[in-house]
Amino acid sequence: MRSFHLAITAALLAQASTPAGAQESGRATRLAWTWPWQNSDTKAPDSSQSPTDAKPPAPSAARPASRSAAQEAAEMSNTLDAIKTLQSACSDAAWTLWASNQYPLWRNRKTPVLALNYSIRTFDQLPPVPATFGADLQQRLSQAMANANSTIKDSFPVFKDMANYVNAKDYEGDKFKKGDALNDRLMSFGKSCHAASNDLHNLFVEAVQVAIDRLLPNAAQADAARIMIADWQQARGLANELGKGRAADINRLADLTTTISALADKRRAEFAADAGKSELSKSPQARFYDSDLTEDVAVKMRKMLRDIKGNPTAFKEASDDRPRTDFRVIRNTIDLQLPSDILTLLRK
Questions:
Q1: Are 232 and 339 in contact (CB under 8 A)?
Q2: Domain assignment of residue 146, given as a range
Q3: Is position 57 within any domain?
Q4: Residue 68 has what pLDDT?
């Protein structure tokens, strides 16, 4: 008699924060399967839990026609936060459904375990994109956010069908026919989510620049913000080179990394006392230079350059147009996190 282990769990995810004016929902399903022919000491997780419906936060009250600068800043920040949430959710979906999908290997018995952990984050109600961004960008942001949100939502029932299909061992009756069709759909969803993640990434950079330009003139710490903006633009040169993927010039990356490392060290010295604080207690400048520009950009770049130097395989893995590669992770820090630190300072 051969043994097998199967576990499927589903539960609502509690969100730490949700942009105002939006209702965000999260669901997670975990599918883990071990082939009966594989001797395994793996123990099945706890019994499955059925998903329940979480109560979303109430929509924000209608805004008056005349808005203060603080309200305008809040509206723009809410939109930017929602874009980052959806961009991250799309990236995670692309990773699970496409980039790390091992169903083909499992069904052909080239790997004994099929493990898919899928968590989705979507909005029941997307925050409205304010007209402050301009009519053209407002329309493109609204469309991209709606498309990404619906794509992630639509993928979840298909994933559940796959979980039920494997749970029932239906592949023994149809020789994987339905499973193959379901996985083709999941792979397609994953690739669509990857494209949506790229689109939202680029739109965020465009939108955050509009927000920074809008808020800078009246900011209490405008001079400090201008220095951070100039340093961010310098770092964006590195992000743009990383964005070339396999066409990136390693020597150019090395030169840019040296420049960014020197810049980060110089600025960190100016916030040495603040840098030792917890992340929540740090000033936006300390987070920008110490946590983000130094630890998550300069340090990671130096390590990656050492890893890929003279190693074509490592370079390919780092630069592939796929989620969670080294190139993409560092680009996300530069393009998404650094300007968020600037916005935090501008709103103080």
A1: yes
A2: 6-50+69-212
A3: no
A4: 84
Mean pLDDT, the chain, integer: 84
Alpha helices in 95-221 (DSSP H): 103-107, 135-167, 171-174, 177-215
Question: Could you tell me if 228 and 164 lie in one domain?
Answer: no
206 lies in the same domain as 237: no
* Surface-to-core class of residue 157, CB atoms within 10 Å of its CB (0-12 exposed, 13-18 middle, 19+ buried): exposed
Please check whether residues 33 and 112 belong to one and the same domain: yes
pLDDT at 12 over 90: no
Q: How many CB atoms lie within 10 A of CB 313?
A: 8
Count: domains in the chain: 2
Q: What percent of the chain has pLDDT over 70?
A: 78
Q: What are phi and psi of 115, to 5 degrees?
A: -130, 115
Q: Kindly state the average pLDDT of the residues 297-319.
A: 97
274, 283 contact by CB (below 8 A)? yes
How confident is the model over 262-281, as a mean pLDDT?
77
First to last CA, the chain: 67
Identify the weakest region by mean pLDDT among 56-70, 95-109, 224-238, 262-276: 56-70
**Amino acid letter, 171:** Y
Q: What is the DSSP letter of 104?
A: H
Q: What is the per-residue burial (b if ≥16 Cβ within 10 Å, else e) of 232-258?
A: beebbebbebbbeeeebeeeebeebbe
State residue 334 phi and psi, 5-degree precision.
-70, -45
Q: For tokens 């979303």, name the residue.
A: 56
Mean pLDDT computed over 167-178: 93
